[in-house]
Amino acid sequence: MNFTDLRILKTQERLQNGLLELLRTKELKAITVKEICDQAGISRNAFYQHYGYKEDLYDQMVARATERIREALLPVVPNVSLLKQGTVMTYAKNIISGITEVKELIVVMLKGDNGKFLRELTDLIFGQFLTNAISFFNLEDTEEHRLFYEYLAGGMAAFIIRWTLSGGIPEDRAVGILNAILLQVPSSTPNLLE
Q1: pLDDT score of 119
Q2: What is the model's pTM?
Q3: CA triple 77-79-83, angle to 5 deg
Q4: For site-directed labelling of 43, which of 76, 101, 143, 170 has its Cα 20 to 30 A away?
């Protein structure tokens, strides 16, 4: 990475942190570009070199959070035949670790969001769960499986939201709880038509 790329990333990071700080006390619609720039210590000219509107900056923050969560949901082994004792615990650790990296951002987005982030989070989890299941368990993409994984995605989204907003359960305990939940999920989806 060259100096220019590093400078661009640092500027974007400062603007994101500035907006994040402002979102703790104000809704996005009440925040001005000037306030973001003042908070970040960046000129408005520099802001507009990177973003057209404050919503562009916010959308990039949402994309960063959802991408990190998507990465955390990737399977830790390529298929069910490679499952070993402790694999589910490793998966739970990866999920909690990924959420922890963007936890502060998730909390702020959930508190000041009109439901956009929640819907994106649930859709992201559903898509990743379904993709994982198709390759992991060698399943077909059917309406029954989609319904099953939509249900699981709603539960995972609820878990993430409750854990991030409550703040009362430490990371290692959250891993244990998530591990116990994941162990209750069948090793493959049940035949829903029987």
Answers
A1: 87
A2: 0.81
A3: 65
A4: 101
